[in-house]
């Protein structure tokens, strides 16, 4: 953990020793395609902060982080505004093609949570969230004419798209929801500032500055402001600000601004929150009459891990996404590895393939997706050969023509340098 910039230097040193072991948790989720990278970095828009800052007792950065860690909010309901500015080009008419490509291997169901993530990768959205302990959670994505919901109730996990009248059903064991709770909603759809704050705190190490920067009102609650800043140059991350509820320790607002300046890339916040227990009926769901229902099965990957997939899906589809021999975790033989340190860390993955459609001979098999990737790509050459850099305002990925992927919250120059050094 980084040294905390407060008057209490002893607390800072103790914090370094206790938390250093946690800093190597996965800093980035790096799919082969930049669309997946973008989806993994989606976030939520700012809560409408009240005017005037509350007068709260002084607290150190370490104490505030400990307050977040000890937060045990089991019940809540509220509204979250969602806005993401990754700097992606206007998708125009490609949305349906991209979503169709994302849904392949998942029963082509518009109700599958994994196919809904792309909708949150740009624009502004409104979410309604609710939780009641570790076994009940709900997230609803609202628009003018329809609603999409993910409901976790006991062992059942439901996805429902009112626009298409489609239902996706799985179980918590198959979907990986065993660690939900403490205010979290079904994790297929990141929905609250806590989801993002938890990941940000895992990324803090001795290359980071962590401070308390005053107080704020968020969604009618008194909150402290925790600020996380990289000490290194070359990263695309400028700063992360987390508003922490003074009473419960629950993150109420999460904002990530890029080092390039301008609007926030990720900005998460409640506009309304209630910590009383939601009605049991909030988590009840029965497929509407006439709805198309897709049932999920457990599929086994080459390494024995459980994957969620649609009933009747071909397990070979999963092997194409993660080739045999490359399924290990970071640091394991054949798996992705991390080079560099702190915020300049870069994930390196050998897909065993032929790169992406731009600059190489690879193809996703979907014309709309290939065209979209071409619009993002920037062809580069170096000692490593040639490849394409796919860029957002936060995460950049270099995919070489021989199928290697270099990705992280770093500049294009850093990716090319890393690829050259690997040769």
Major beta sheet, strand line-up: 1-8-9-10-11-12-2-3-4-5-6-7-13-14
The secondary-structure element order is HHEHEHHEEEEEHHEEEEEEEHEEHEEEEH
CATH secondary-structure class of the domain at 38-283: Mainly Beta
**Which second-level CATH architecture of the domain at 38-283 applies?**
Clam
Average pLDDT over all residues: 74
Major beta sheet summary = 14 strands, mixed
Strand share of the residues?
A: 25-35%
Task: Note poorly predicted spans.
Answer: 1-51, 91-107, 174-189, 298-331, 357-362
And the CATH topology of the domain at 38-283?
outer membrane lipoprotein receptor (LolB), chain A
The outline comes out as globular
Distance between the termini: 32 Å
Number of helices: 10
Helix percent band: 10-25%
CATH superfamily of the domain at 38-283: Lipoprotein localisation LolA/LolB/LppX
Based on secondary structure, the structural category is alpha+beta
Radius of gyration: 21 Å
Query: Tally of extended strands?
Result: 20
What topology emerges from the helices and strands here?
Elements: H1 9-19, H2 34-40, E1 49-50, H3 61-70, E2 75-84, H4 95-103, H5 113-116, E3 123-132, E4 136-142, E5 147-153, E6 156-161, E7 166-171, H6 172-175, H7 193-202, E8 208-218, E9 221-230, E10 237-245, E11 251-258, E12 266-274, E13 292-300, E14 306-310, H8 315-321, E15 337-339, E16 346-350, H9 367-376, E17 377-382, E18 385-391, E19 396-400, E20 404-408, H10 412-421
Parallel strand pairs: 7-13
Antiparallel strand pairs: 1-8, 2-3, 2-12, 3-4, 4-5, 5-6, 6-7, 8-9, 9-10, 10-11, 11-12, 13-14, 15-16, 16-20, 17-18, 18-19, 19-20
């Amino acid at each position: 953990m980084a040294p905390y910039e407060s008057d209490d230097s002893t607390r800072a040193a103790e914090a370094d020793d206790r938390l250093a072991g946690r800093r190597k948790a996965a800093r980035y989720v790096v799919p082969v395609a930049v669309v997946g990278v973008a989806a993994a970095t989606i976030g939520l828009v700012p809560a409408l902060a009240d005017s005037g800052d509350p007068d709260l007792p002084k607290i150190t950065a370490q104490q505030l982080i400990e307050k977040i860690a000890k937060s045990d909010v089991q019940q809540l309901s509220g509204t979250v505004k969602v806005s993401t500015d990754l700097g992606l080009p206007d998708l125009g008419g490609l949305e349906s093609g991209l979503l169709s490509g994302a849904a392949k291997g998942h029963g082509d169901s518009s109700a599958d949570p994994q196919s809904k993530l792309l909708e949150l990768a740009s624009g502004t959205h409104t979410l309604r969230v609710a939780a009641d302990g570790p076994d009940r959670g709900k997230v609803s994505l609202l628009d003018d004419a329809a609603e999409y919901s993910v409901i976790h109730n006991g062992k059942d996990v439901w996805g429902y798209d009112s626009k298409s009248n489609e239902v996706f059903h799985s179980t918590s064991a198959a979907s990986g929801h065993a660690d939900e709770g403490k205010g979290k909603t079904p994790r297929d759809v990141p929905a609250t500032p806590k989801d993002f704050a938890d990941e940000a705190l895992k990324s803090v190490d001795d290359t980071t500055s962590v401070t308390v920067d005053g107080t704020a009102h968020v969604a009618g609650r008194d909150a402290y402001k925790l600020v996380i800043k990289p000490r290194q140059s070359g990263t695309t991350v400028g700063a992360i600000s987390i508003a922490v509820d003074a009473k419960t320790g629950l993150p109420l607002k999460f904002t990530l601004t890029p080092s390039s300046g301008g609007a926030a890339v990720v900005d998460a916040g409640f506009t309304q929150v209630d910590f009383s227990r939601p009605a049991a009926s909030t988590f009840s769901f029965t497929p509407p009459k006439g709805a198309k229902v897709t049932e999920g099965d457990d599929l086994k990957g080459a390494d024995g891990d459980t994957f969620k997939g649609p009933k009747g899906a071909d397990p070979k589809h999963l092997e194409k996404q993660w080739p045999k021999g490359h399924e290990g975790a970071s640091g394991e033989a054949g798996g992705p590895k991390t080079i560099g340190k702190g915020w300049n860390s870069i994930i390196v993955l050998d897909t065993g393939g032929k790169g992406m459609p731009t600059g190489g001979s690879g193809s996703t098999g979907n014309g709309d997706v290939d065209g979209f990737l071409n619009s993002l790509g920037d062809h580069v050459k170096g000692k490593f050969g040639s490849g394409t850099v796919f860029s957002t305002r936060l995460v950049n990925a270099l995919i070489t023509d021989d199928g290697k992927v270099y990705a992280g919250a770093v500049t294009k120059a850093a990716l090319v340098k890393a690829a050259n050094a690997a040769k």
